[in-house]
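Final report, Chapter 2: Outcomes

The project's central promise was a pipeline that accepts a single protein chain and returns its three-dimensional structure in a standardized token representation, suitable for archiving and comparison. That pipeline is now operational. To close this chapter, we reproduce one record exactly as it appears in the project archive, with the input sequence first and the structure output second.
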Amino acid sequence: MPEHMRRRGKSGIFYADFWLDGVHYQDCLGTSDRRWAERTLALLKDKIEGGEYYKHRTIFRDLVPKYLEKLSTRSLHLKVRNTTILEIHLTPFFGDMRLAEINISSVVQYKMEREKDRATESTLKKELRVLREVILLVDSKWKNPTLADSDLMKFIYKGKKAENFLEESDVYLIIGCMPEKYKALCLIAAYSGLRLKNVVELKWENVDLANGWIRVNQSKTGNLVKVPICGKLKDIFGSIKVRPLAGNARVFPGSKTKPVTTAFKRASKKAGLEWASFHSLRHFCGSFLANSGIRQELIAQVLGHKDLRSTRVYTHFRPETVKEVVSVFDQE
């Protein structure tokens, strides 16, 4: 039987050196004691046969470049966000751990450390999603721990829900104070629920007026979202006089997010609605639909949410809508 170990260096440390199922394995056994090395070798072979070897061998920070390379095909926003999450939070905590050491306990510890910094539920979910995506490069069965695994996975800080929301009259009041070049852009945001970056970068090839759909990859998640085009939205697109023949041309060429944001804040202040921001238009969309009796599941589809809890953040009810609910008690 061939020797599956050999000594190296002056200290005589044993190294595994063998073939198994056509794969050549070489690994440090970390000891100069033959008996202990043989035990370690047996455990190593068990890990290989059980599919645990690469989890045992791979260090988290060594996977980061491979993950970033895979991320290169995603949206710029997602690349910047996930790279920042890795550099500032995940790598400093998990960087030197082998994947076999990343378990329920270590993830819970990470979550609790981040909550000491007042990280919200939304922020932590993004960070844990990136953690999972990195680990999946080696361990296809990895799942982040949930409440079912540990009570400590309950999120503490839910984030602040907006206290105010725009009525349709408020939207037009603010837009009336906006520069002419941004008015159509704001109206498209209001009646589609799209985020600012998506509207600014919207291309004519994403707009199917004949069948009534806008199809874009969300700037925040990179996921494809299909937004139905209502009559008002169709009229707004129709009012845009300059439309290049090239399908990949932008609907609002030359527009950038920061000038739009600044102009909207100024217009909101002028309209007496200082608290409003461009993102309030997305809240308007969700709230208008909710107050019109549209089901949360359908609102979630319009806004591109996979989790109804996210949709609830964007749906605000008028007092008269809430009051109308109890009117069913008076019906005969």
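Archive annotation: The domain at 168-323 is CATH 1.10.443.10 (hpI Integrase; Chain A).
This record, like all others produced under the grant, will remain available to the consortium after the project formally closes.
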